[in-house]
Amino acid sequence: MPSTVIREMKYDAGTQDLEIAYTTGQRYRYKNVPEKIFKELRASLVKGRYLRHHIIGIYEYEKLNEAD
């Protein structure tokens, strides 16, 4: 399902890293995100809302370089 907030997302099940490229060009890597949370985000109809309630402020993150 397309998102007005997320341009791209990648998940690494081995490290449990979730990388989000936002439509603003910013990119973040959220650490130790369970695969269940990633799957729920991917299936969510309103991804921005899911991010705010279940990921942002809950999981440690790092800001990456701006997306191309």
Give an overview in words.
The longest helix is centred in the middle third of the chain and has 9 residues, at 35-43. The protein has helices at 35-43, 47-54, and strands spanning 6-12, 17-22, 27-30, 61-64. The protein has one domain. The chain has 68 residues and is of the alpha+beta class. The chain contains two helices and four strands, in the order E-E-E-H-H-E. Helix 1 runs antiparallel to helix 2 (47-54). The chain has a four-stranded antiparallel sheet with strand order 1-2-3-4, with no helix packed on it. It starts with 5 loop residues before the first strand and ends with a strand.
- Could you list the spans in which at least 5 consecutive residues all have pLDDT below 50? none
The major beta sheet can be summarized as: 4 strands, antiparallel
Helix vs. strand class: alpha+beta
Whole-number count of domains = 1
- Globally, the shape reads globular
What is the rounded Rg?
Answer: 11 Å
Helix content: 25-40%
The arrangement of helices and strands along the chain is EEEHHE
Fraction in beta strands: 25-35%
In round numbers, the mean pLDDT is 93
